[in-house]
Structures are given as structure tokens and as C-alpha cells.
């Protein structure tokens, strides 16, 4: 029996609701498969926990997390805690501490889901986000607070190692897809140091992948291409901030933020990787039982894939797609179903 140890961190807003739905389908898959079992441990780290204890991750917390095979993460962000505090308190210490430098964000219009684009069915993208440095390097400061001469800096940091490894990861992934096409997203027309190096290293790495077709697009221009010519994109590699923005657009174009998954990978597996829906806490619907669990199911499929359970991952996506196709959908997709109804139906199809 294969045993996978999962650290579950529901955290804020609808996070705990969707993580619990995700664990239900994972249990159903393990039961159906018979070859693997999950050992799940829940961690209560959230913004509420922070307000009570003064920290998100307690001392020794990261050391403990390190012993797991994967982290299944809900969402962080609360109206009671400034966003930069919650993000740097919980999500970024894990992502950066565990060197999860490759953030993988697939986008596709699932059956039965309507894209706002006429030719939205052409969307089949994977956005690769550099996840360890760039604009999120935390390199900056403030001085003369409150005075007229106050200054704030936020300097993006690009290292050769950081840039090369993300481009290589993107080429490896592009090579495995039928179209074998990789688009470099950049802003090297306006930013002439880090971004020019970003481009140069891309073309150095490209020499090792003659089978992958490439092109280069400025980040502003790629947004119009995503909307007007979605079929021309396949794998896209972009910096931390650029890909953050592009992946929200990709999620909206594929029907809803409620279906978009993500994996924060440490490809060398020195540390556990973390899997999360990209939608965030969504206070407006927290506790109403109508959060779309599909993003978390898709996320769970990516986690299974990473754990070597490809057959279960495939079965899960088949069940999810059958359910979206049937019209049983939560309100973000225009339906009336609850989180529990969608979860139950996915579990039923997994068992069936
Ligand atoms: C994401 C989110 C986060 C990010 C937020 C919560 C800071 O938008 O994962 O895309 O920008 O990294
Ligand atoms: Mg984002």
C-alpha cells in the first residue's frame, strides 16, 4: 500500500470549506483505487489563529511541514489582517522557504462551462510562474515614514540561477505537450536590466530544446493575444508578478476563478510541494456553502499527479468534467448547486 502524507491547511475564508471538499474526493479516490492511502494532518494556521497567537506559523512549524509529501492549501487573506501581513505570514514563508520556484497554472474551459470569449473553447494553456524571486523578492524598504520626503522602494531581483531553472522547467513541460510551444513573456522593452537578462537566458536554454517552438511577447501585448487569439498560446513562462496577473485573466477567460488550480512545485523534491486553488478567501461567500470546489478538485488532481498517482488524478478529472458537463454547477458558473452537492456527485462518479 502506497502511503502519502498530506498536510492540510484550510486557513481563511472559503479555504477550509473547499479543502474539506477536496479531502472528501481524495478519500473516495483512495477507496476506489485500493493501491494508496492518505494520511492527512490538519494545521490550524489562519488569520484567526494569527490574531490569537501573534503568528501564523509557530516555531518549528516549517520543520514539521517539511516531513510531509505534499501540502494541500486553501486560501489566506482576511479583512482583519492587512494582506501583506497575512501573505508574508503564511503563504510566502512556505513557498519561498521550501523553494517552490515553479508555479504551474493550467487553464482550460471544462465541459459545460461557458467562456466569456466566443472562441474560448480554444483555451488550453499552462502558465508557468516564476515563484521565488522577481517582483516578489521582498527586496525593498521604507524610510522617513509619514514625512513629506517618505520613500518606498520595491526592487525586483532576477538571478541567473532563478531565471535559468524556471525557463528550463517551462521547456521541459512544453516538450511534453502535443503542440510543444512556449511563449516567453517579458517587458524588456521598458525594463532594460533584469528583463533583458530574463530574455537572454531564455534563448540560451532554448538551445537545449530544439524540438520546442518558441516566441516572445510583451506582457501587455500578451493580454490581447489571450483574448483575441487564444489558440496561438500553449505554454507561457512569465515572472512572478506578470504571471500572477495573467493567470487571473486566464481563469476568467476559462469561465470562472472558481475552477483554476495551481501547483507550487519544488521540482527537485528536496521539499514538499504545495497545491492550492488560485481563487483566494472570497469573504462575500464564506460560510454560505456555495464555494465552487472544482478549483480544489483540479488542484487535488495535480497533487495526485505529483505523488505518482496518475490514474487517480485522471479518474478525478473525468468525474469533475462529467459533473460540470451535467450542469450541476455552483453560482459562480451560473448554476444553483452547493459545494456539498457538487462534491457528493463527484464522489459518486468516482465510486461508480
Ligand atoms: C495568487 C494570489 C497571491 C499572489 C496573493 C494572495 C498575494 O493572487 O496566488 O495568485 O499574488 O501571489
Ligand atoms: Mg493572483
> Helix content range of the residues, please?
40-55%
Q: Can you tell me the CATH superfamily of the largest domain? A: Isopropylmalate Dehydrogenase
Shape, per Cα inertia axes: globular
CATH fold descriptor of the largest domain:
Isopropylmalate Dehydrogenase
Q: In what range is the share of β-strand residues? A: 15-25%
Give Rg in angstroms.
20 Å
Based on the coordinates given, report the CATH architecture of the largest domain.
3-Layer(aba) Sandwich
Distance between the termini: 22 Å
Q: Structural class, from secondary structure content?
A: alpha/beta
Mean pLDDT: 97
How many beta-strand segments? 12
Task: Count every helix, treating DSSP H or I runs of 4 or more residues as helices.
Answer: 11
Order of helices and strands: EHEHHEHEEEEHEHEHEHEEHHH
Strand order of the largest sheet: 2-1-3-12-11-4-5-10-8-9
Q: How many domains comprise the coordinates?
A: 2
**Regarding CATH, which class of the largest domain?**
Alpha Beta
Which cofactors or ions or other ligands sit in this model? 3-isopropylmalic acid, magnesium ion
Largest sheet: 10 strands, mixed
Amino acid at each position: 500500500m502506497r502511503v502519502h502524507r498530506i498536510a492540510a491547511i484550510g486557513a481563511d475564508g472559503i479555504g477550509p470549506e473547499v479543502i474539506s471538499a477536496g479531502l472528501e474526493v481524495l478519500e473516495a479516490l483512495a477507496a476506489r483505487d485500493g493501491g494508496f492511502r492518505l494520511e492527512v494532518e490538519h494545521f490550524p494556521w489562519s488569520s484567526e489563529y494569527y490574531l490569537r497567537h501573534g503568528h501564523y506559523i509557530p516555531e518549528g512549524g516549517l520543520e514539521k511541514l517539511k516531513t510531509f509529501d505534499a501540502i494541500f492549501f486553501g486560501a489566506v487573506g482576511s479583512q482583519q489582517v492587512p494582506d501583506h501581513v497575512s501573505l508574508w505570514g503564511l503563504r510566502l514563508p512556505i513557498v519561498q522557504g521550501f523553494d517552490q520556484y515553479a508555479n504551474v497554472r493550467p487553464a482550460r474551459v471544462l465541459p459545460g462551462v461557458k467562456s466569456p470569449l466566443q472562441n474560448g473553447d480554444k483555451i488550453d494553456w499552462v502558465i508557468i510562474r516564476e515563484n521565488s524571486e522577481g517582483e516578489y523578492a521582498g527586496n525593498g524598504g521604507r524610510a522617513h515614514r509619514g514625512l513629506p520626503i517618505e520613500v518606498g522602494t520595491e526592487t525586483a531581483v532576477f538571478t541567473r540561477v532563478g531565471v535559468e531553472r524556471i525557463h528550463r522547467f517551462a521547456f521541459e513541460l512544453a516538450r511534453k505537450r502535443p503542440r510543444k510551444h512556449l511563449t516567453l513573456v517579458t517587458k524588456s522593452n521598458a525594463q532594460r536590466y533584469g528583463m533583458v537578462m530574463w530574455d537572454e537566458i531564455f534563448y540560451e536554454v532554448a538551445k537545449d530544446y530544439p524540438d520546442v517552438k518558441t516566441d516572445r511577447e510583451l506582457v501587455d501585448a500578451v493580454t490581447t493575444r489571450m483574448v483575441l487569439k487564444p489558440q496561438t498560446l500553449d505554454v507561457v513562462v512569465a515572472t512572478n508578478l506578470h504571471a500572477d496577473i495573467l493567470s487571473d485573466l486566464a481563469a476568467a477567460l476559462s469561465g470562472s476563478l472558481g475552477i483554476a488550480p495551481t501547483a507550487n512545485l519544488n521540482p527537485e523534491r528536496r521539499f514538499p510541494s504545495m497545491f492550492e486553488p488560485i481563487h483566494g478567501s472570497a469573504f462575500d461567500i464564506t460560510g454560505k456553502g456555495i464555494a465552487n470546489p472544482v478549483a480544489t478538485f483540479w488542484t487535488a488532481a495535480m497533487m495526485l499527479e505529483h505523488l505518482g498517482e496518475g490514474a487517480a488524478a485522471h479518474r478525478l478529472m473525468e468525474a469533475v468534467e462529467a459533473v460540470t458537463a451535467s450542469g450541476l454547477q455552483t453560482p459562480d458558473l451560473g448554476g444553483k448547486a452547493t459545494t456539498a452537492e457538487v462534491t457528493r456527485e463527484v464522489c459518486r462518479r468516482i465510486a461508480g
